[in-house]
Amino acid sequence: MSSTNGPNFDHGDIAWVLASTALVFIMVPGVGYFYSGMARSKNALSLIMLSVLSVAVVSVQWWLLGFSLAFGSSSSHFIGNLDHAFLRDVDNRTTSMGVTTIPSDVYAIYQCMFAAITPALAIGSAAERGRIIPMIIFIFLWSTLVYDVIACWTWNPDGWASKIGVLDYAGGTPVHIASGSAALAYAIVLGKRNGHGTDEFKPHNVANVVLGTSLLWFGWFGFNGGSALAANGRAAMACVVTNLSASVGGLTWCLLDFRLEKKLSALGFCSGAVAGLVSITPGSGYVDYPSAVVFGFLGGFACNMAVRLKHVFNYDDALDVFAVHAVGGFVGNILTGIFANESIIKMIDPTLTGGGWINKNWMQVAYQLSDSVAGELAYYHVDKLVTHTKRTSGNGYDDSVKQSTMM
Prior knowledge:
Layout lengths: L1 E2 L7 H28 L5 H28 L22 E2 L8 H19 L9 H24 L4 H5 L7 H19 L15 H20 L7 H29 L4 H15 L8 H18 L2 H4 L8 H19 L2 H4 L18 H13 L2 H7 L22
Antiparallel strand pairs: 1-2
Helix pairs in contact: 1-2, 1-3, 1-7, 2-3, 2-4, 3-4, 3-6, 4-6, 6-12, 6-14, 6-15, 7-8, 7-9, 8-9, 8-10, 9-10, 9-12, 10-12, 12-14
């Protein structure tokens, strides 16, 4: 953490990052609406409530120690120290992570929104089973023991993945692979929903799914575009490729479903759009427009195929979190190793080098693969965190949240 004078900050960059912070925040209720629409009506309120609670719990955790663990100095290359616990020395007079145009408190609140949405994504797999209080405890512990560690090795200059040259622009591993893997573990530990395999579990409100998708798509411009941490051409390119990948992903999923069911599905389009958004996330600041089409197509295709895994391996991922986020993040990471373009990386600093296979950097995919596999290991930390999570009542309704009042 270094100090600098306020006048050296770029007001345009500050405004863009703060606006992006608000955009990422909007994604949290977007997740809630998306999940609530896919669940049965009696569980909808719980899913929206948990998404909002995730922001509150993680914000407190981020202030206490999360920011310091993720972005403090690290001699281990895995986890930061506690020098910035309670956001000590994080204010409007200092800078962080070598970004000199915005103050460290702006950087901290922006990254806080990333930390908040990640467990909100993961808890969708526990729909109709997990109880509110144990899940709040899980959010706090998982953020500390898993998310902060992965964020440190990915985005902290002292992190091992950062040092070997892994390219992850906006969270393919810390956000999507980690949350998807945690979702799979959570679903397996909690077991299947009551009536799984006999009852019909249909989305109760597709309009909510469309609303949630719209909020997510809108917020993703801040998620990926804001990761430039500046109002510049790279941020603009990130927004364009994000929109393009989401569009192609949605259309791809629709066509795959049409091939089997002979009709277009709003739910299918929404799932595909989110898959496209997830897959472009790690590469959004490194790839050009044609590459974004490949990301959207392969991301939508792979995630659509991955939905079938729960039937093959007989687990109950209620809202397909693993299929969309873990698989989409993995595909995006590997494609970034192929299509990362050195000319785009040099847009901000001509001295930077890198790129993927298209620049004959043949080791980049190996780097991306190592980071992705390490992120998948988040799966193994979750079973211990949810051992004491209670199941719902016999009818599958999470009675820790009443339909009319919050307890």
